Amino acid sequence: MSVAPQLEKEMAAFQNLQKDFSKVIQSRAQLESQLKENEMVAKEFELLKEDATVYKLIGPVLVKQDKPEATVNVKKRIEFISAEIKRLEGQIKDLNQKQEAKKEEVIKLQQTYQQQMAA
């Protein structure tokens, strides 16, 4: 029985895992950036007086917003982004394990294939 088709199939699966892993890493980096941005906004809010005027950008328009409401919105956004990052970290760990397992499978198949070719 030839190992070549199975080897090709496993290599394709491994490459798909690598693509998925890369996408998740990219998403996590984007979320990290959003988290830092929102944390900076939260710190800026702490520096404002209670009666300060806050504006929220909605499309091309700045809309006046109460400081307490804006503060709560930013805190909720930080919580949501943090939860998403945690979820993605779980995915990263899972994909990493799957990649390692698939990599070992591919190596074994390559060795078997090389042995068949030498025989």
Automatic annotation (TrEMBL):
Pfam (any one): Prefoldin_2
Domain of life: Eukaryota
GO molecular function: protein-folding chaperone binding; unfolded protein binding
GO cellular component, one term: prefoldin complex
Keywords, in A-Z order: Chaperone, Coiled coil
Keyword Coiled coil appears in the UniProt entry: yes
InterPro entries: PFD_beta-like (IPR002777), Prefoldin (IPR009053)
Gene3D superfamilies: 1.10.287.370
One BP term from GO: chaperone-mediated protein complex assembly
Coiled-coil intervals, chain numbering: 78-112
Family according to the record: Belongs to the prefoldin subunit beta family.
Name of the protein in question: Prefoldin subunit 6
Species assigned in the record: Geranomyces variabilis
